Amino acid sequence: MIEDRERKTGKELLMILIKAVICLLLIYFSFNQPQMYKDYPRLERVADGLMIFLGPSLIISIIRLVVIYWYIKKHKFKSNIKDNFILGINRIESILNTVFFMLALTSFWDVKLQDLVFSISIVAAALAVTFKDYVANMINGLIIMFSDRLSLGDHIKVGDHEGKILDITLINMILQNEDSDMVIIPNSLAFSSVIVNQSKQNTKKLSIEFEMSLANGYTPEFIENQLNKVIENYADNVMPGGLTVKTIAINKDVVIFKAMILLKRYDKVKEREIRRAINTTLIRLSAVLKTDKQTTPTTL
Predict the structure, then answer these.
(1) If I label 105, which of 36, 120, 222, 292 is the partner at 20 to 30 A Cα–Cα?
(2) Taking Cα atoms as reference points, which of 208, 216, 229, 243 lies closest to residue 300?
(3) Gap between the Cα atoms of 215 and 218, Å rounded
């Protein structure tokens, strides 16, 4: 990982050096006005356009490299540090380079600066109104990228969707759920929703909500004892005493329970096995009539 980062940094330094050399040549030609500028006026416009783009682009690249270098040194290449901050810096660099590239294109037309600024303002306002949802997504995406609450690789839950963060773009957040499906969530939805980040916790919580008939007369303690026998086979993955059963609601015919299991670490395969074993036990319990049980649990 460090070798790949160093190789990438070397390429970035080379690009910065090339930009710097070209900018110095353009500045030199701008002050000395070579004969070819007089013979070909359009060539001078091209050079001015390159200056408008390469000058700010060079400054942006240097600032970006310094910020990323400071960020990496600050965290000392810790294995648990994710690159969402670097991702945000890269997105901002792309946006700024696009803006200066568009400004460079305008140098090919003979327009006054104040007219150019006014025209750009009108166009920008029209685009902001037309694509306000996309603008909101971009802003929310940048906020998420620079937040230390979410990182690439974190296992999160957004509404009804749960999975690992694969990527954060300027428009969407991409998750991979337990079925290995890619779930694309708009940044505005993720920003306005309640997000549960299970990777930031020391343990992962597995929750299963289920119903039991009142005719069975099961209590939370009875169900908890039955499920504890099941998770004994998964002692390496479940926290000691990490199983609790709560009563969510008591309706006319059924009782709604919720079982919560604290896992020591995130393991998708083991979590699926534990969930399947618990569901199997709950199905068998719900199929047993109260008159057929050898041990009668305490009534609710």
Answers:
(1) 36
(2) 216
(3) 8
